[in-house]
Amino acid sequence: MSVVRAQGNCVAILTLSPSSSINRCSHGSASSDDVTCGTPTWIGKGLTCVCFKRKGVYERICINLTPLQEERLRRLKHRMKVYFDSSRPDHQEALKALWSATFPGQELHGLISDQWKEMGWQGRDPSTDFRGAGFISLENLVFFAKTFSTSFQRLLKKQGGKRSSWEYPFAVAGVNITFMIMQMLDLEASKPRTFVRSVFLQMLSENEWAFDLLYCVAFVVMDKQWLERNANYMEFNDVLKSTRAQLERELLMDDVLRIEDMPSYFLLS
Q1: CB under 8 Å to 5, separation ≥6 — which residues?
Q2: What burial class does residue 51 get, using C-beta atoms within 10 Å of its C-beta: 0-12 exposed, 13-18 middle, 19+ buried?
Q3: What is the rounded CA–CA span in Å between residue 89 and residue 87?
Q4: Per-residue confidence at 13, pLDDT binned at 50, 70, 90?
Q5: pTM of the prediction?
Q6: Hey, how many other C-beta atoms are within 10 angstroms of the C-beta on 109?
Q7: What is the pLDDT of residues 135-156, one digit of tens each?
Q8: Taking 80 as the threshold, does the pLDDT of residue 20 lie above it?
Q9: Residue 79: what are its φ and ψ, rounded to 5°?
Q10: What is the DSSP letter of 30?
Q11: Which long-range contacts (CB under 8 A, 24 or more apart) does 147-152 make?
Q12: Distances (CA, A) of 24 to 9, 27, 52, 102
């Protein structure tokens, strides 16, 4: 990690490449309780800053997006806007790929089948459960199943720990996790409004699959917290909120420069 003190109170942190950096600058104290202080302003070519209140003091986030970051952010935003369409052949193939990765060697009888309930969908047709997060939530599940198959199978089969008598449905939980991360990162905002988003954009420049990796971390963190709280289905939203809080804490750690640096990444196998 590169930590550079510039003029005044500005400290550049999380410098992942020579062409891109995030700066946090003291903006003085203020009495207002507003989260933001004014509209983000442009300071030089390509540099945007936004202020927000943290522990009684206003701080400023400054991030200079590189062309690579802008392109990867554009692609990720596009993925987030794609609705699941059961009539599209590529979406059908993605569903089949999820089945094959989840139940290798077990024949799927159809895209609408009672078999899907084994994965934790609400009914016979999984397409009805993608409305909240869209096609990217299916892509996230496929990525998890193929990249971290051991962890994926462990969570799917609810192995390890004292499980609740009323467990969360695995696949539907996955869709909810995608939606939670989308909200947390606030990627649809035209300007950066949080440190978490700014830090994530740096990670995206290092790895185009940063969103999908963060999803996998979030899933194992959620299951760990589920077990620690001895939660049941009715407490799923509370567990999801505490999962988001933990992810935000880890992303803001000074020595976390990549998703792989997050303390909870070691939970994946």
Answers
A1: 11, 12
A2: buried
A3: 6
A4: very low
A5: 0.80
A6: 10
A7: 999 999 999 999 999 999 999 9
A8: no
A9: -60, -40
A10: -
A11: 147/212, 147/216, 148/216, 148/268, 148/269, 149/101, 150/269, 151/216, 151/219, 151/220, 151/267, 151/268, 151/269, 152/101, 152/102
A12: 9, 9, 11, 43
Between β-strands 11-17 and 20-29, what pairing exists: parallel, antiparallel or unpaired? antiparallel
pLDDT in tens, 164-214: 889 999 999 999 999 999 999 998 877 667 789 988 988 998 899 999 999
Helix axes 135-147, 170-185, angle to 10 degrees: 110
CA distance 43 to 40: 10
Q: Is the pLDDT of residue 38 over 60?
A: no
Of 187, 195, 216, 189, whose CA–CA distance to 76 is shortest?
187
238 neighbors 176 (Cβ within 8 angstroms): no
Cβ neighbors of 157 (< 8 A, separation 6 or more) are: none
